[in-house]
Write a structure and sequence with these properties.
Radius of gyration: 13 Å
Helix content: under 10%
Number of strands: 11
Shape: globular
Order of helices and strands: EEEEEEEEEEE
């Protein structure tokens, strides 16, 4: 069965950095676009960034451009989210998602359980 397992979340001070990882299993990883989403308390889940099957293209939400970078290592079946210059408003549960193909439009087929990121001021 398909599993997406996020890790790397935690508590960090404003201005700091974190790198999240998402390890995928049960799928042909290189056939899936991967994405990161986040959900803050009381808010809807929002798109953070996506990366194509080969890693040749990426997409990010405007508020994260220049601060967040998504990458993948197909040999390790892992996608990463590098988060720099973190702000308190980045506090959320971050989710990894997967879908077949190279676009980042809904629906996403598989989801991880999420990892908590808390940014203190």
């Amino acid at each position: 069965q398909v599993q997406l397992v996020e890790s790397g979340g935690g508590l960090v001070q404003a201005g700091g950095s974190l790198r999240l990882s998402c390890a995928a299993s049960g799928l042909t990883f290189s056939s899936y676009a991967m994405g990161w989403f986040r959900q803050a308390p009381g808010k809807e889940r929002e798109f953070v960034g996506g990366i194509s099957m080969s890693g040749s293209s990426t997409s990010s939400a405007d508020s994260m451009k220049g601060r967040f970078t998504i990458s993948r290592d197909n040999a390790k079946n892992t996608v990463y989210l590098q988060m720099n210059s973190l702000k308190p408003e980045d506090t959320a549960v971050y989710y990894c998602a997967a879908k077949r193909g190279n676009n980042f439009f809904p629906p996403w087929e598989y989801w991880g359980q999420g990892t908590q990121v808390t940014v203190s001021s």
